Amino acid sequence: MRSSEEPPLARDDLEDLLEEMLDPVLSSRRTAAPLAEALSALPAAHQYFVLHWAAAVAASSTELAYQVVALAREALSTLDQEGMEGWLVQAMDVYDKRGLYAASAVLKDLRGFSRTLRDTRSGACFDEVASFLGLFLCGLSGRRLDLQTADVPYTDTATVYLPGRLVFFPSRERNQSLYKTMAAHLWAQTRHGTFNRDLEAGIVGCGDPAAALANLATLEAIRLGARLAEFLPGLAAEMHALRTDPLPPEAAAMVPELERADATVDDSLAVLWRLGPGILLPQWPYVGILRPDQALKVRAARIESEKSTLRAELAKLAQESRRSKPSDRGAGRFRVEQEPEKGQDLTLLLDERPVAPPDGVTQLLRSIVLDLGEIPPEYLAAAGDGAYDDTASGAEKDPGAAQAGTDAQIYDEWDYRRGHYRKAWCVLQERQVHFGDPGFVPATLAKYGPQVRQLRRRFEALRGEDKVVRRELFGDDVDLDALIEAHADMRAGHALADRLFLRRDAVDRNMAVMFMVDMSGSTKGWINDAEREALVMLCEALETLGDRYAIFGFSGITRKRCEIYPVKRFEEPYSEDVKRRIAGIQPLDFTRMGVAIRHLARLLSRVEARTRLLVTLSDGKPDDHYDGYRGEYGIEDTRQALIEAKRLGIHPFCITIDREARDYLPHMYGAVNWALVDDVARLPLKVADIYRRLTT
Amino acid sequence: MDPGSTEVSLIKAEPYYEPVADEIQLFEAAYHGRLPVLLKGPTGCGKTRFMEHMAWRLKRPLVTVSCHDDLTASDLVGRYLVTANETVWVDGPLARAVRAGAICYLDEIVEARKDTIVVIHPLADDRRFLPMEKRGELLQAPPEFMLAMSYNPGYQSVLKDLKQSTRQRFVAIEFDYPEPELEQRIIERESGVDPRLAAKLVRLADMTRNLKGSGLDEGASTRLLVHAGKLIARGVAPRSACQGAITQALTDEREMLTAVNELVHAVF
User: Fold this and answer.
1) N or C terminus of chain B with fewer C-beta within 10 Å?
2) What is the DSSP string of chain B?
């Protein structure tokens, strides 16, 4: 770029240059003179910039170049040079695709472009903050909340809805930070019981419902701000700073009442009524709106389901305790002690003796307290033995007959209620995966080009690790430590040791790993895409590493149609066929995990290896819509199958994308034998990494 | 190794330790019953400090060996060294501990080579001797000797699992991060920050522990909190101290860094 001191080009020189460049579209009525006139007023740097781009555009279309020059002065006054380049490039892109007319429309919409540009530069979008916000909310604890986009921020107590894009502030950082305060505020609503009252009923008669709810949202923001200030002062201060619009004096007078430590949503409602319908409270940017209708629905469904789950869990606990202490038959009465100053800490007592509930139950108790403020006594009445629907059995005495003449294999299934196996209960068949798009693997490798290279390098390094083997009988070099020791031994009168060499070679990792891929219907769409991409990345890594591996998909519907889809067997090389099978993995039916684990564990145990690893890629709980393979039953059967696998000398591990995984995976796989990949889009990049951590 | 340089010595001042449950009684009972002990627990929750405290309490010297993947049996038991004109035998730390009737603490035992772990087997059951193959000697452990080792069950690697034949020789004591009030007291005491600040650190730690399994391998340990507290006590601003001592120590991932940092900012 020319320096700014350089004198600008004169009008006549410019006219000559432009005439030459734009000649084809000039005429006696359309001359270069007015263009040159306009340009001559610009500094030299801008003139050259415009001429450079005009020439570039003229190479495609002289007419477009003419328009560029005609608009240049205005453009330079609205956009900086980088913005202007963006504007021109966009116009030329449109020209290439849709021709001159569309392109000149882009050029003329200079103001629109500059507005969008400002927004993209300063705005924050949901996608870029979603995964960090998810972690942030998870850290703040309380109930796990999902994140979704919506026009206005609100929460239904299970999901936090945030706008897809925020351009409230002129800088991106501040917009991102606004996202955080919004999300935290909505979390605080669920944490501190905003929806523990029927808000819709609470505002009836207090003027226009929408206005009343908006006012209530502001009052709640004051109350929650004070609650947060106690434990999260940094966050509360950020929120406070966003309250720039002042409260009207009559509302400001009520603030101390809302900021009391024991204030609840009832106090906010009371203040709302006292202020009356006429008042208009400020709408602070992070507060969002209240949607009591949505919250009520979600909350009611959750309360109902948690009540029954809790009662069933307690029944099980009571049963367990009876079994462990048969002599000591208490009344089986549960009670919960809540220590107010400890906040979320609850103690569960059975017949006045504390019991240690499983993690899932603790979560459940906490969640119920969040909704109701306490554990109501009727929740603690353990519900019978759980109604067990056994209609499906009996009918089929010999499941094998259903699949006569095939290579079907029969497996038992664990029924936790009986504490026994159901014999020969599941019929499993191996089926072929249909070949998928041959372009899928190359496309994935291209998509993750740099990451694939990085992955290969990292796994090569891994293969190279520990290459030096000490104290060998023969080798490339003398093992000095061994030699010195042997020398000393010899001088002390011992025989000279013969293992004195170092050898460098690839340590035999002697590892066999089986990947079990969830092909259930719930993986449909991008989860399936992510799974397949993850497999491609994994194959790249494992091929580099040289570990023996196999890939099998599993799905099924009912106990008589459990299916296993071999994608790659241990002895099979990573061939074109395998690649096309990976591409052909598709979502099918349900997730009956137990039988799949039993079958694959049996295959894996036949492979000679020092370490055998069974890695499951899954998106949720084991679940088959039929024969009661749901919830507890499915989890317990899967757990049993994994215990059997461990007995065969297999290490099971699970990689999941289910955010609820914490509630049930530790029970199935053990406290550490699982990993959660929160963000599906990152699955392909993460799986290989997890495998690396797992095997070093 | 310089022969005789690491004399086993007694711990004179009481190492600060806050009991969480009945671990002190359990350890003492194991000691008097001549049983070896396995301390299980995540990193930085006080296992090593507990050992120091117990050694002081039982008035025995403590020999600590940090295990690594190149640790051989000779490194533990001993070897011949050639000096000017003769060869001398030098005891390894384990043999030294046995002779002195000390407490030998093998830290992070799973890091040691598999074949190394086996030499402690005869020492860890009722035989209580250490075979010194090179000297053709069986070193019988005196009644005061005790073997202890630590193990972090949180490792996900399948190669870092303790074999049944090893683990079933030990009395296991489980350690975890202390209860909030206790942890707060430990931080106050160890770092010298005021109770309010210590409580905030504990709250922050709790939030990071919520993230375990969602991208963090471990939440912030008590040790990290003490580090942060020490920085703050020396005048570093709390946010910078937590950033340095906690956030960066926990993870390298950008998103997780942002999330943990935001938690820091929320608390301070």
Assistant:
1) N
2) --TT-S------SPPP----SSHHHHHHHHHHTT--EEEE--TTSSHHHHHHHHHHHHT--EEEEE--TT--HHHHHEEEEE-SSSEEEEE-HHHHHHHHT-EEEEETGGGS-HHHHGGGHHHHSTT-EEEEGGGTEEEEPPTT-EEEEEE-TT---TTS---HHHHTTSEEEE--PPPHHHHHHHHHHHH---HHHHHHHHHHHHHHHHTBTTTBSS---HHHHHHHHHHHHTT--HHHHHIIIIIHHH---HHHHHHHHHHHHHH-
